[in-house]
Structures are given as structure tokens and as C-alpha cells.
Amino acid sequence: MSLTMNRRAFLASTGAVVALHPFSARAQNNQAHLRLMETTDLHVHVYPYDYYADQQSDTVGLARTAALIEDVRSEATNALLLDNGDFLQGNPMGDWVAYERGMHDGQTHPVIQAMNTLGFDASCLGNHEFNYGLPFLLSALGGANFPVLCANVVTSMGEDPTGDETLVPPYTILETSVTDGAGETHPIRVGLIGFVPPQVMQWDRQHLEGKVEARDIVETARAYVPQIRAEGADIVVALSHSGIGPAQHEPMMENASVPLAAVDGIDAVMTGHHHRVFPGPDYAGAEGVDADAGTIQGKPAVMAGFWGSHMGLIDLMLERDGEGWRVVEASVEARPIYLRGEDRSVQPTVESVEAVLESVEEEHEATLAYVRRAVGKTDAPLHSYFALVADDPSVQIVSNAQKWYIEQMMAGTEYADLPVLSAAAPFKAGGRGGPDYYTDVEIGDVAIKNVADLYLYPNTVRAVKVTGAEVREWLERSAGMFNQITPGETDQDLLNPDFPSYNFDVIDGVTYRIDVSGPAKYGSEGEVANPDANRIKDLSFEGKPIDDSREFVVATNNYRAGGGGNFPGLDGSNTVFEAPDTNRDVIVRYIVSQGTVSPRADANWSFAPLEGTTVLFDTGPLGMRYADDVKGVEIEPMGEAQEGFYRYRITL
């Protein structure tokens, strides 16, 4: 039996009755409707299952997104199914394959198996495809029944991008056919080209340095797109695993989809990386972007959320122009797999497709056994409900484990006499992840699923050498998490919604206060916004004001040490130790070594007092169980908030 589902059989089994898209319904004899479907940032989410919580989830899973695919195909006369990268890593199933099962001859990676089942036409590489190293990546791609593209990661550079030797094919031209409004079938050549943030060279340096290089996304596109056109492509679609960022092109920018859309010859752009939805309010007001119409630089573009939460749709009305086709009209949609009810409960709009579940059933069961394996105990709860407003046990245990490990690694080296600090951030802290997106481990056994919950990414441990002044700047960058608060006013919103929680580093080993009455020195992207600002107060080491010239070793991860998050002074040049071990593995080893851990927050940071001032923040409703134990901040419950969150007031 073929792994690719037969479309006619699928529709017969579902009894689907759908209406044609207006483009298909009104196409003339020289016109054809082509629908482009996008998934992005799947991160191995095939089953609708939260392995960290060990329960079903109605908000994720390619098996759920699959239920949209055939209806979506049926609404259009002609359709292509495309993926936009970050499919290979991101949940415990990905880790189980990489660290336990491995990729051996004849084996297919489960997410690739699911994508083969659905008949994907093409994909591109995302930055997380590199997390497990190049041999693993190339072995996994060997099982794909579709091309996986990337034009700007190369094994050898030529004089210009078109002379490069790329790691995987830079582009492909799909030779397919379209049926026009008169029912006549015509050939069409669809050019697809893939891009990934060049920052992969920093984020996964241990896997990539000396083996590949990365080029700028926009410059690479400017070189390749004319070549794709010259080879006969009627239309060109960019698979851009890059976010929607600034409109002006800057060399080697991470989020380059806006200037990429401006490249001549590109007709449509698939975006991702940001884990957001486009079209929609997430990008309202962005330069060069129409967040309602779903266009970037006037061209149709889509971003389909993450983990299978949406199916992105770009509908193109094509018209024959001489011997080829051109785009004359377009529409864009991001279609969800669930809705939220008036009571903020999740209401699934689709059911899982059994063929997709069955394709990875064995791997799913093996992953469940993997994540349920106990490694030790905790005598205090580990949760992140208040991690953005107070020192926090879920961040504390990560810091403790990193410090424990790096102190051992520094022994006997030239850095052995330097004090070791540890920087860690909360990964699961609500936000766009929703009111259930928090770490929550009860007293008792700690299993691998709990460690993966504490530390979402397979980063590797790094140590950097910094001065006291650089510690201060590191914390100033983190302090951008908070809005500027007016002293004496009440109930102001505390958290900056554009600041990701994984960039809110807490540094253990020093004590400090954060004065939110002043502006943030650094913006949400790490740019200097207010050069004279100073939110970090009373920064001390061993009870004394920190010496700006004193040197420290800071335990962190490869992402941060290599420049991830654009923290001042962190660009890889001051790395003094690159561990072969992941942060997760170190946490597991630390728990095993301790037997029972006591990860109580030590309240080494707090807010500077502001008389007569109160602020508000929202967290998950289950945080009420721990509210009385929060140290260093005076909080009171305020009741339910929007989107299922619960609101608290902090008296500063």
C-alpha cells in the first residue's frame, strides 16, 4: 500500500462536501486557480499530544492539520502542499529519535514518514534542522519523498551564490499541470527556493563550523531568482524560514522576509520562524506589510502559526501570458485547527486523520515510554507561573545544574579561579503559548518529560568570560521584558508583549534590583534604544557592589553564547568552554547526582520599590496553587483575564 493517501479515497471516506474557492469558480478559459498550502514550524508535532504534560492537546499536531488538507485541496482546482521548515526538532519525539533510537539505514524519521503520508510537494530547512548535527540531518532527509531546499547554507562558496555548492538543493522547479476554467489541462512550472536564517552558524556552531557556511538571504535570492526564471519557471515561491521583520535590508539579517518579498521575480512568500500567524494582528502596522490582506511588499505571504496549529493558504489566480502564466490576483488565509470558546476553552474544529497517526504509532508509543522515565526526585514544586516577576524555582534548577557542571569543567583550567555565575531564562511562560504553557512539576519523581519541560531546546552548555560591566549590560538587555512604569500610578501593564520570555535571562551568583520607572536600554530585538538608561540597580557580588573590571565565567547555552537574542558582548568571541553535552543532559545528571533536589528560588533579584505604584501581569490560572510561596514580591489575585489567563496585581 502506498504511503501517500489517495485523494479520491480520502474524500470518499470523509464524505466531504466543500465549495470551490471563488478563483476556481470564476476562472476563464485562459485562467487557472493555483492554491499553495503551507505548514511551518511543525517541530515533530505529528500527534495531537503534549508529551511534557503527557496528555492529548487539541491545539497541535500534523494529524489534525491533515484533516484540513483534503478539504483545502477540494476547494481548489489545483493545489501544492509545502512545508516551511523546523520540522525535525522541537518535542520529545525528536529527541528520542536523535538520542535513543538514532537514524539507521532503511529507517525513516517519524515526521518525514507523516509528511510522506500526506504527499508533501516540497519543504525547506529551518534553523532547528541543524540541532542534531549534519550526519543526522542528511540521514533524516534521505527518507523524504519530496525535495528539501535551502539556498543559503553552502559547503563551498563560489564567486556568487549561483556558483556555490549547497548542502541541499537550493531550489527546484516542479513540473506539474493546472486545469483552467474551461476544463483544459496545461503544463506549469513552479519554482521553489528555500532560505534559513544565517544565524545558524552561531546557534549550532559546534555542528557547522568548518563544514558549511551561510550567506545572506536577500543577496542569495537576488542571484538565484533570475536563474530560476531563465530555466523556465512560470511563477516563483520563496520558502522563507525567516520571520517578518524590518523592511530595510541589512546584511545577514535573521528576519528577512520583508526585503525578500521585494526581490524581483518572487511571486509569493511562505514565512515562518516567528511562531506567529499571518495574515492577522500579530504584524499590524509593520512597514511594507498589510496584515489584513496578507501581503508583504504587495505580494501574497502567509505564516501558519506553529506545531500544526494552522494551515496557511495562498490562492493565486493565474492567467496565460503568451506561453507562460502570471499572477493576476491573490488571496491569503491562515486556517486554524481549533477555536477558543467564549469561556476560553479550546474547541477543536477537526479530528485527527488516522492514516497519519498510524504512520508513526510505534514511534509515539516509544516516545511515551522515553519521557516517563524517572531520573530523581524533587522536594519542592517546579513551576514557571511567576518566572517573569520573581526569582523562580524552574529557572533556579537550570541555573544550579549549569553552575554545578561548569565548575567541574573549569577545574584545572586557566579559568579555575574565576567565580562561576549562571544565566537561565524561562522557556514556558505563557504568552502566545497560552494559559497552559507553563512548567509545572509537582513534588515527587522527576522524569525525562519533566526535564524536557524545564528546558525545551536541545542546546549545548557553553561558558563565557565576561567582566562585571558586561554582566550589567547582559541584565540591562534582559530588563527589556518590562514596560516603563510611571511612579505613583496604579494598575499599569508590567510585561512587554513583544519581548520573548527566553530572552529574560536571570543571572545567579549576583544580586540586583530592576527599576522599571526608567526606559529600557535595549529594544526587543537587542538594539540600543535608550543609551543612557540604567534599570539595573544595586548589582552586587558576595554582598559588595560589583567591580566592573572583575572577570567572571558565566554558564549559559550555545544559543546565547553565540549571539542568540543579540545580547551585548555575546558573539561567540568570549566563549571559553564548549560542552559536548546538552543543557537537558546536564540537568538530568545533576538530578541523578543529587538524588533529591531542593530547587527553591533564592530571590537574588527583585523590583526596585516605587511608592504608591501597582502593576498588573497575567499568568496561568493553575499558578494560584503557588502564589503564597512567591518570594521577593507582594502580589494579590485580581481574577480572570483574557484568553484564559489569571491576573495578579503587584505592589511595587
UniProtKB/TrEMBL annotation:
Residues 35-276 form the Calcineurin-like phosphoesterase domain. It is found in: Cell envelope. One of its GO terms (cellular component) is outer membrane-bounded periplasmic space. Residues 1-27 form the signal peptide. The keyword Hydrolase applies. InterPro entries: 5'-Nucleotdase_C, 5'-Nucleotdase_C_sf, 5'-Nucleotdase_CS, 5_nucleotidase/apyrase, Calcineurin-like_PHP, CpdB_N, Metallo-depent_PP-like, TAT_signal. CDD domains: MPP_CpdB_N (cd07410). Keywords: Hydrolase, Metal-binding, Multifunctional enzyme, Nucleotide-binding, Signal. It comes from the Bacteria. Its cofactor is a divalent metal cation. It catalyses: a nucleoside 2',3'-cyclic phosphate + H2O = a nucleoside 3'-phosphate + H(+); a ribonucleoside 3'-phosphate + H2O = a ribonucleoside + phosphate. GO terms for molecular function: 2',3'-cyclic-nucleotide 2'-phosphodiesterase activity; 3'-nucleotidase activity; metal ion binding; nucleotide binding. Residues 438-570 form the 5'-Nucleotidase C-terminal domain. Belongs to the 5'-nucleotidase family. This is Trifunctional nucleotide phosphoesterase protein YfkN. It comes from Jannaschia seosinensis. The lineage of its organism: Bacteria, Pseudomonadati, Pseudomonadota, Alphaproteobacteria, Rhodobacterales. The gene is yfkN_2.
